[in-house]
Amino acid sequence: MHRIGVLTSGGDAPGMNAAIRAVVRKGIFHGYEVLGVRRGFAGLIDGDIQPLNAGSVADVIQAGGTILLTARSEEFLTAEGRMQAHASVRRAGIDGLVIIGGDGSLKGAFTFYRETEIPVLCVPATIDNDISGTDFTIGFDTAVNNVVDAINKIRDTATSHERTFVVEVMGRHSGFIALAAGLAGGAESILIPESPFDLEAVCRRLLRGVRRGKLHSVIIVAEGAGSAAEVAREIKARTGFDTKITVLGHIQRGGAPTAYDRILASIMGARAIDLLEAGERSAMVGLTGSRLKHYDLARVFEVKKQIDKELYRLAEVLAI
User: Fold this and answer.
1) How far apart are CA 32 and CA 54, in angstroms?
2) What is the pLDDT of residues 163-180, one digit of tens each?
3) 49-88 burial by CB neighbour count: b if 16+ within 10 A, else e?
4) Which of 126, 156, 173, 256 is the most exposed place for a label (fewest CB within 10 A)?
């Protein structure tokens, strides 16, 4: 193996640049040429590929987003699109790929490997933290800190006006961000897709808080759990409380990655190169406890990653 390609795919996640940097510099350390593929799988189809050197990734470790850009490619979902991507890989002389992205990106990588036998090593990067085989994905810690920072600011105005705020966070299919940020931010209730919720119980908790002198309340809703606007309407109708909504949206993805995400991205990106060097052909790097491990890509999709129900119950207990 002499030439490696690296790309970022799907939703951007803070720390992707740190992972790119690690892939490039560890690759160079091992004597490989490293090529950057712009705009993910779409760029792989179009042949939008450029050489990267140590200077190409200088001063990017602190930057959010991805210097290689990213995109979602409908064309790559087709056999014809993947054939075009394979032709681009061959023309560029790429012997193996490091793919940095979330669940959809990993599935695309696995399909590409099965059809072409081009080695693919995957680095899990998604703010949703919903990939099996790793405790944390790149970008999750930064996103949670972004949400907690927003909660802190919302509390100031919520207290001043004696209001209830319903804060909607990302998570169409998983409540990892909502749970972590809600626990860290001291939310009164956390509504997630994985756990059915009772709005009547939410309202009882709010009323109980007011009786003991609380001036405000914050409720966190993962977008997949329901409409924040509907939750707010129901709370106002059942309690009479002045209830406002804040949808944080894409602000959760932005900003400089935390130190944790920079370190995680660096060690995962470097390990991907080590695995290619060792002859792995279809694997994902993961963190379990404090140890880096790797898993065959086929195994990653066998089990859906579960929310820590004990953590969820603890958040409810602490919100009494």
Assistant:
1) 12
2) 999 999 999 999 999 999
3) beebeeebbeebbebbbbbbbbebbeebeeeebbebbbeb
4) 156
Domains and CATH numbers, the chain: 3-139+257-300 (3.40.50.450), 142-254 (3.40.50.460)
Which residues are bridge partners to 35 per DSSP? 5, 51
For tokens 């001291």, what's the residue?
A: 186
The residue to which tokens 């059915």 are assigned: 196
Annotated active-site residue 128? The verdict is yes
Single-letter code of the amino acid located at 113 = Y
Looking at 12, 103, 128, 141, which residue is catalytic? 128
Q: CA neighbours within 13 Å on the CB side: how many for 292?
A: 17
pLDDT one-digit tens code per residue, 197-254: 899 999 999 999 888 888 899 999 999 999 999 999 999 999 999 999 999 999 999 9
CA angle 299–305–309, rounded 5-degree value: 150
The greatest distance separating any two alpha carbons of the chain, rounded to the nearest whole angstrom, comes to 70
Among 249, 214, 209, 210, which residue's Cα sits nearest to residue 228?
Answer: 249
Q: Under 8 Å CB-to-CB from 29, ≥6 apart: which residues?
A: none
**Range list of H helices, the chain:** 16-29, 40-46, 79-92, 103-116, 140-161, 176-185, 199-211, 228-239, 259-277, 297-300, 309-318
Location of structure tokens 């850009």: 69
Fill in the DSSP letter of residue 188.
S
Whole-number CA gyration radius for the chain = 22
Closest CA to 220 of 190, 242, 200, 199: 190
pLDDT in tens, 109-132: 999 999 999 999 999 999 999 999
